Amino acid sequence: MAEQVDLLIAGCGYLGLRVAHDWIAQGYSVSALTRSRERADEFKSAGIQPIVLDLSSSTSVSELPTAQFVLWAVGFDRNAGVSREAIWNDGLERFLNALPDSPERFVYISSTSVYGSGDGSIVSESTPVSPVTEGGKSCVAAEDRVCQFFADTPTAGHILRLAGIYGPERLLRRVQDLKDEVPLPGDPESLLNLVHVDDAVRLVQLIMTQDSMPPILNGVAPQSVSRRRYYGHLASLTSCPAPVFDAGQSPRRGGNRKVISEHHHLLEQAFRFPDCLAGLEDAVNRSSL
């Protein structure tokens, strides 16, 4: 494949698709991977050059287009019938080996789950990783592989550890739980570390285009809030009953810790929302609830 694009995206889902739209609006050419031919047609209609490819298949990776910038933002689809390791680790290896040339920058979207469950302490980029979940462990292995792969190349490899992503159309299940007064898992006083999807898009743009960005960055809203405040605010915005919590039930992700970035002075221009409560209002206003 002799094509050349400005940005190549692996993982064009909730975050990746918004990054693609943002770059196309700025006049860049964008190509993205998808397993679905139907999805490929949607990409074409949006101005995205599709590559139909299943990274979980050991025989499916052919040569990729040459790209100046590359984004790996592959999520985990529990309904796809493949393991995290098959896509996040084995698939990543196939993807890296299929790149025809060294891009100028490669951004790997990781997760703050690499820091473990937490005990209420503050964690930053210099905190040693200690993942306890399968997802966190897969992220650490993938981070290590990205760093190794680009160590002796001209590519600037970056790891962006995102907190929980929220935004438009990602609130429906929790709003329904609030309406039905279903107990929410976790201690209501434990901290939530989140990032609005629009801010995550802007963080990717910043890392891709600004010089001298650190190789590892945490992408998290400037102010962490308790589960009680967050879900209480969501209930108020959606006219739901006050949230009910089950402190004995562990949440699916996260834990009681406060995630910060030591490099917030470099990242602050990317944040449209001063905290996740302000971002929550935007998300509700732009959702079909």
What do these coordinates show?
The chain has 289 residues and is α/β, with parallel strands linked by helices. 33% of the residues lie in helices and 20% in strands. It has 9 helices and 15 strands. It has a 7-stranded parallel beta sheet with strand order 3-2-1-4-5-7-12, with helices on both faces. Strands 6-15 form a two-stranded parallel sheet. Strand 4 (66-72), helix 3 (84-98) and strand 5 (105-111) form a beta-alpha-beta unit. Helix 7 (227-237) runs parallel beside helix 9. The model has no long low-confidence stretch (mean pLDDT 92).
Can you describe this structure in just a few lines?
This protein is α/β, with parallel strands linked by helices.
List keywords for this structure.
single chain; 289 residues; alpha/beta; 9 helices; 15 strands; 33% helix
> What is the first-to-last residue Cα distance?
43 Å
User: What class do helices, strands and sheet pairing give?
Assistant: alpha/beta
Report the uncertain regions: none
Shape: globular
Strand content: 15-25%
SSE order in H/E notation? EHEHEEHEEHEEHEEEHEEHEEHH
